[in-house]
Amino acid sequence: MGRINDLITMAKERRVGFVMDEIMSGDHAFEPGMGPEGRRPFEFRVTWGPKNLIKWINPLGKGFMTQPLDGTVTVGGMCTRVPCAGTLELAYFTEGKIRYTFEFVYGGKTYHFVGEKVHIRPWNLPVSHTTCFGTLTEKDSGKLVSRSLTHFRFRTTPAFIASLRLA
């Protein structure tokens, strides 16, 4: 009973949240002149979750179902497990999307990634929640570097669920 009371107190004080670890893997192709030709591995391993559950679930709030993320990104032909940070937006009700947005620095340049899981509907969750279409750009110039297609692999589901923890 003490643990439940602690959680209730934390929620009232707006200190309770959660985090989860997610791996999205697949491949990408550089735009002409931006890197080696052909399909290359692309993967991001991120930890995401709201720090304040009360604000996160408030549909009138600025941060509705948006939370920070951080982790690493591997862009085959460019970099391996480089630190990245950004946000994950669960835009289920407004756009029917899940949007990963993050930045990372490699070779003295800052890169910007936007990946979207699209057409989120209750009847297509095994597809819509597992397939992410991404673009990687140079932050300063806006120049397109590559396009990616990554997936949440079903075999990672047990680890994903087990990674849920209070924050």
Sequence-ordered SSE layout with sheet pairings:
Layout: H1 2-12, E1 18-30, E2 39-48, H2 53-56, E3 66-75, E4 79-91, E5 97-106, E6 109-117, H3 125-128, E7 131-138, E8 144-151, H4 157-162, E9 165-166
Antiparallel strand pairs: 1-2, 1-8, 1-9, 2-3, 3-4, 4-5, 5-6, 6-7, 7-8
Give an account of the 3D structure.
The chain is mostly beta strands and 167 residues long. It has one domain (17-166): Lipocalin (Beta Barrel), CATH 2.40.128. It is built from four helices and nine strands, in the order αββαββββαββαβ. It has helices at 2-12, 53-56, 125-128, 157-162; strands at 18-30, 39-48, 66-75, 79-91, 97-106, 109-117, 131-138, 144-151, 165-166. Strands 1-2-3-4-5-6-7-8 form an eight-stranded antiparallel beta barrel. The radius of gyration is 17 Å and the shape is globular. The mean pLDDT is 91.
Radius of gyration: 17 Å
Structural class: mainly beta
Largest sheet: 8 strands, antiparallel, barrel
Strand order of the largest sheet: 1-2-3-4-5-6-7-8
The number of distinct β-strands equals 9
Mean pLDDT: 91
Query: Which percent bin holds the helix content?
Result: 10-25%
Strand content: over 45%
Anisotropy-based shape: globular
Given this structure, which CATH class is correct? Mainly Beta
**What name is given to the CATH topology?**
Lipocalin
Identify the CATH architecture: Beta Barrel
Instruction: State the separation between the terminal residues, measured CA to CA.
Output: 20 Å
**Helix and strand succession?**
HEEHEEEEHEEHE
